[in-house]
Design goal:
The chain is an alpha/beta fold. The chain contains twelve helices and eleven strands. The chain is globular.
Length: 322
């Protein structure tokens, strides 16, 4: 009798709780969704975040608010998101590769990215560009490599971020070069030295690199993705020129690790639908990026692999933890 009574109570409990839980999930979002941006209003990152906030709001009919939390190279926004209520109403739009890099670059990171954050959706994939001055006699990566071998330690390159340095150091390793690295506060600061010949080549982000390439101010010799991209047109890859390398920049929608799977799937669907739109693809192409659509499971797997890969790459590039 007691067993029958216990079973009846359990059945009644399940019948009561399960529909409520299902309704809670079905109701997502139950309030405004905040898209977090780790950089100031008006920045390149802010423009991307606001584009998707507007796009997804129109497609879903829900309210999306952009909240700028600049500071510490995006770490303030990442930390805020990781510690937010894991209900899907706080979503960070940021460079997934940047989060993976910082997870390995900081001596005392405020969060453990592999455990405290998960990727709900990928957004885009974009190569960085190896460039030389537009007046340079180097017309291919092979030309540059041959010249750098002759110059030896007198050769040099410009970089302004850990990501660009890793690309250059990977090229040096495969090409057996001994070029000296020259750090700049920003990529813009390196352009005069590239033009004067004070440095031989530079690694630039696609927005700046493509713009300067089209203007003839620099000549792009290689892109850092394994395959050519639609956004960069006919520009050749390192790999097809004998330097095996696949180091893309990529953007993602990140949420606290405890966010329910059903909510993550909904978020993934928002971005997958947005990325199908022609105007979204046109918007991304202007920044040198192609859409990147992965399932939620594959997106997070990719993120964890990136964290592991960047640990190895940062050590190879001899970049000290900060």
């Amino acid at each position: 009798m007691l067993r029958m009574l216990a079973a009846a109570v359990l059945a009644a409990t399940v019948a009561t709780v399960t529909p409520g839980a299902a309704m809670a999930q079905a109701a997502f979002p139950s309030k405004e969704v905040r898209f977090i941006c780790g950089f100031p209003a008006g920045s390149g990152a802010d423009i991307i975040v606001r584009f998707f906030a507007d796009k997804i709001a129109k497609k879903t009919g829900h309210t999306f608010i952009v909240e700028n939390r600049p500071g510490a190279g995006g770490m303030l926004a990442l930390t805020h998101t990781a510690r937010a209520q894991p209900d899907g109403h706080t979503i960070l739009l940021a460079g997934g590769n940047a989060v993976a890099i910082n997870a390995n670059l900081l001596k005392n990171p405020p969060i453990d990215a592999a455990k405290d954050i998960k990727v709900a959706a990928t957004i885009n994939k974009m190569p960085f560009l190896l460039v030389v001055d537009g007046k340079s006699s180097y017309n291919s990566l092979g030309d540059l490599t041959e010249a750098m071998r002759i110059k030896g330690r007198k050769a040099s390159y410009a970089y302004s971020s850990p990501f660009s340095k890793v690309i250059a150091e990977s090229y040096k390793t495969v090409g057996k070069l001994d070029a000296a690295e020259v750090a700049y506060k920003s990529a813009t600061d390196s352009l005069n030295d590239l033009s004067s010949g004070a440095v031989d080549f530079a690694i630039l982000d696609p927005v700046m690199g493509l713009s300067l390439h089209k203007e003839g101010k620099v000549r792009a010799l290689a892109i850092s993705t394994a395959d050519r991209t639609n956004a960069t047109g006919t520009l050749p890859t390192f790999t097809e020129q004998g330097v095996k390398l696949d180091l893309p920049g990529w953007w993602a929608a990140l949420v606290p690790a405890g966010t329910p799977a059903a909510v993550v799937e909904t978020i993934n669907g928002w971005f997958a639908e947005a990325l199908k739109e022609p105007d979204t693809r046109e918007f991304l192409a202007k920044g040198g990026a192609d859409p990147l659509t992965l399932s939620a499971a594959d997106a997070n797997k990719y993120f964890l692999e990136e964290i592991s890969n960047w640990d190895r790459l940062i050590k190879m590039a001899r970049i000290e933890k900060q």
